[in-house]
Design a protein that fits this description.
205 residues, NADH Oxidase, 4 strands, 44% helix
């Protein structure tokens, strides 16, 4: 699908067909395409929980203001940002060392810069995790549409409750959830509401 068509046709679907399942192999394809999203220093400070079992859906349902989408969608992704994704433990640094031909000085310089830019305050850590994971989230929704799969991003959720219920690490932040499945065509979506355009949101300085 052409890029313009992807943006024109992607909608946040409120109603999913419970009888249409997404195979795990297709979810894998979507995510493997979406991870081409950019991230700071290519650190990819993110993780995804794919909530697919009925048991886990019910647990998430109660933490998402009991929105029916959670139960109807074939899967819901919990997008998680890593607030310490700049640290030495990230295996991407080893990959970077190989990519730059073993230039340890270059990698050490990048580590120092990343540590200062993203790890010097709690606010910067959170911004780092959420801004990068947000890029992945949008990439997932566009990639899903390429495969004919519908999505709905959700931030009206109990972030702390999900963090606790799904036993995330202290260094991890729940960024959003994304319902994923196929639009139930027996229901009607609300018309797409107008967007504020360049003249409304942009200032050339």
């Amino acid at each position: 699908m052409e890029t313009k068509a992807l943006f024109d046709e992607r909608r946040s679907v409120n109603f999913f067909d419970k009888d249409k399942n997404i195979e795990e192999s297709q979810i894998k394809e979507i995510i493997n395409l979406a991870v081409l999203a950019p991230s700071a220093f290519n650190l990819q400070p993110w993780r995804i929980l794919v909530v697919k079992s009925e048991e886990k859906k019910k647990r998430l349902f109660d933490l998402a203001n009991q929105q029916e989408k959670i139960l109807e969608a074939s899967a819901t992704l919990i997008i998680i940002g890593n607030k310490e994704g700049y640290a030495d433990a990230n295996p991407v640094w080893d990959e970077m060392l190989q990519s730059v031909g073993g230039n340890q000085q270059m990698v050490d310089g990048a580590k120092q810069a990343a540590s200062f830019l993203y790890g010097s305050t709690d606010e910067r850590k959170l911004k780092f995790a959420e801004s990068n994971a947000g890029l992945l989230a949008m990439s997932i929704m566009i990639a899903a549409k390429e495969f004919g799969v519908d999505t709905h991003p959700m931030s009206g959720i109990d972030f702390d409750g999900i963090h606790k219920e799904f036993e995330l690490k202290d260094s991890e932040s729940v960024v959003m959830t994304i319902c994923m499945g196929y639009y139930d065509k027996s229901k009607q979506l609300y018309p797409r509401r107008p967007r504020r355009l360049f003249e409304d949101i942009s200032t050339i300085i």
